[in-house]
């Protein structure tokens, strides 16, 4: 197999990157499977940091020492490394790692390809210090992990859910642990492979996994790993010389949650435990119990200050964070409530001054530990609470976090708290811990059993996935929009600008500069009226057009005037022409041409606005000189009218069809519907397949403008049953007596109808002012439920704010302050216009308390036709607040 | 009147969606700062006033949609945090307060779009998430809104898409007199598809709107208003705004009453690259006559058909100069 690989490296068909390795150094993949026998163990980590001996290693080091290596020599050294690797592999059969991952390379063509490209990339970057120092092992890529194509971006399957990781000081190895995983992996740019499996040793000591792992700051012969065994005690491993347990610390009476080595003194280890203590262990002194920092609180997290070695900080289950000075344990230096709910993670800023904490309250906060104030200086709200946070090296504002029950790992920039810089989706299941290898490469472990390395330089910025703007228009022709000049800027600053406005007083610069810079998005936006729709004309026409069929001539003339007054000259012209079509006698050509001339000029005036009506239209009308005007714009009917004298029996089918199609095309359903209604009685009127849509759309549009009465009239006037019965559709109003709550059954023979309650004989829906039964419009106070004639209510409440019944309710509190204008008074009440004036039925009041109280200004109710019942239950419960019946 | 209300500084990060309510007198904005703001139009002053602001999600809020006002003041919002939340406004001592009445969280991945169904279908909500599934929920009891039942679910493409592969989007056909239809943008497939209910009430893809050179960021189905055809606009990552016209395909058997897969003749009647940058959103006005599009070039463009049926850019609103720079 290794011979194949050697061939592969010589193969000219290897991807172009292989040919570009001329300036790079060659490194064989560092693999030295930890074996069961002592000999191979002697080749363990301690050699890793000071490589010597093996031929391949020498070859690779020779290559590494050359600043520039010709491609041929690179290939040679690589192949020799591979060849030696082959011999090495044959010499170390039966390794403990065999069968570990199933990710062996070279068995399938796909993996071989990945290996080839991975190798070439690795060669190119082989000058990295830690990699060359770790390139001691042999094996030429056995058990190499799956390279995802990007340098330093790969995944490695460990066959068990992972909870924590910790890297050796030179980042050539990483310890990964989980409930039943205790492994040390060797890692370089191209992948990872299993080096040691400590599980067998662990099982002999009654634990198969670990909650947390920390690699001591020493390397080589003295390398130590601390783990928290799943059975409780802290276990110190000696991995420098033998993979054996150096010491087991069992002093904690309850489970240990976190351990931390001192970055300065490799013998100092902190442990945070549920027994409410933090203990400091000196690993040199086996007999001495640790230093104890006791509180009345479970300790979740503990960490040394990276700069000041006597300074430690602990996070507690109560949400407290406490700083301790190891020289003086009697008092805590600084203690503050950091989170609601327990502190789940914390990390000291590399500067040693700031502390990031993640809490159960789903926030990450940054604290200035040198400031006496107990207030956070930055906050990031997160998707879930963090399981691990770590500051990014050399990027003072960046922090990586993994979350509880969350597969993504996110990298934040505190200058933009709401949009993570990157959202990494490498893992399929919950990511459990993060570790920066260097400022660009992030190592993560997950419950999906994998260890992943991600070069975030190749990752998309999450801000790029977010829409930068949106525009919306309402029926009044207003445009609401947000836009952002995103395209012309790169990276972080493309969306954000330093902002000179109101500064966030609690912000503190994390990068050492004296003044924090506040950033805001470049986005601007707003709402403004851009006259996209002439709603005033629409409303005026809707309210004033005659829609009754029967007298076409009158209606057309009236509507023509209305359209004219609304500055809709084209529509006015249409109506005039329609009048001519459907009048009993043909009008004189003079009239026609006059009308035409007038409207043509108006149209010409408005032409610029693309059919929109000019405001100066009214003046045009005054200035109009019939005799002088010339039709400059071909009007819709000019030819027809002038060609043939209009006669009653002349068929206008095509014209009407074209006319309506034209208006429909323009989205002007108002004209479509009004024309259809006015001409409804005309026998020649053709069928329009889409008249339903026109009616439906028009009624919908009227509803948007709250023109309920017009909408009702239109719906009533329409002969199409689907439209005509729209108002009756599932509109059921159940009424009951306001004093005894007995339902009012008008159909019952013995019933007194709507006038009085059958049980208590009280008058229904009486006016609280005149005490008479109200017919027609009935208004009532939604709070105290007393009702009135509209007029009486207006009169009463122009004088007083209080209910006339003396119930004491301030029905109209505004009266106390100022005299309100008439229109505002009306808003205070629900009123309903009787649909058919001749209807003799009085309205019954329903005085249920609506389950969801309605605000007087809430416009959701008024129009019966648009309050369909859904499922009918609402109405059966009597929840409708509407004071009318159908 | 005609005052300009600016959003500047009202949100702490990008605003991703602005949505008018049915009457056009309320406006909801949602942002990456995890908040939703509701603005009310003050008719006497002609300005928009912020009436509520509330933290809605634990991640960026991507879209928001108003329910028809007959169900009360109800909003739905979707987010990167994989949930859809239905909000209802309530009044306590004259103070308006939005409360989450229901949280729909059974999706796998970011919920990328949410839209209430047209009113005639009842109180329904369609959502589409990164898992590539469109789900339609219906409120069981319009008086409480706490219980939403999933009544339909269908896959739009070949499996899930990661967020970085592009987003899904959807838009209902609001026409009352056709079968239920919607257009869905299919993330990594770089197409939009029209789905409609077959006679067995199963949602089936019936047309494909192709020709996109990238992810379809947004789709918008124009209000039909009784026109003989439908218009659908798409916003695409390739920088194009496209308008598709769907004409009834009478030969296809639509008239014979049987359900056919082929229903429309789809023609792309407009294709504009004016933005010259990623186009994020498109939306029609209420009459389906004006289309707005917004893109990374920092401009909003308004499109309108001329009398000859050609679509033209009628105006450009630019970010650099603010709303005052509106040019006709």
TrEMBL record, chain A:
Residue ranges constituting the WDR59/RTC1-like RING zinc finger domain according to the UniProt record:
764-812
Q: Where is this region: Disordered?
A: 1-59, 109-152, 602-626, 822-886
Q: Where is the composition biased (Polar residues)?
A: 111-122, 143-152
Q: Single GO molecular-function term?
A: zinc ion binding
Where is composition skewed (Acidic residues) in this entry?
613-625
Q: In terms of domain of life, where is this protein from?
A: Eukaryota
- Here the segments flagged for biased composition (Basic and acidic residues) are 1-12
- This chain's protein is named WD repeat-containing protein 24
Q: Which organism is it from?
A: Dissophora globulifera
Q: What gene makes this protein?
A: WDR24
From TrEMBL, chain B:
- What does the entry list under GO cellular component? nuclear pore outer ring; Seh1-associated complex
Keyword set, alphabetical order: Hydrolase, mRNA transport, Nuclear pore complex, Nucleus, Protein transport, Repeat, Translocation, Transport, WD repeat
- Where does this protein come from, organism-wise? Dissophora globulifera
Question: Keyword Chloroplast, does the record have it?
Answer: no
Protein name per its UniProtKB record = Epoxide hydrolase, soluble (SEH)
UniProt key word Hydrolase: yes
Localisation: Nucleus, Nuclear pore complex
Q: Which InterPro entries match?
A: Sec13/Seh1_fam (IPR037363), WD40/YVTN_repeat-like_dom_sf (IPR015943), WD40_PAC1 (IPR020472), WD40_repeat_dom_sf (IPR036322), WD40_rpt (IPR001680)
Q: Where are the WD repeats?
A: 8-49, 272-304
Any single biological process term in GO: protein transport
Q: Which family does it belong to?
A: Belongs to the WD repeat SEC13 family.
- Write down a Pfam family by its short name: WD40
- Molecular function GO terms recorded: hydrolase activity; structural molecule activity
Q: Source taxonomy lineage?
A: Eukaryota, Fungi, Fungi incertae sedis, Mucoromycota, Mortierellomycotina
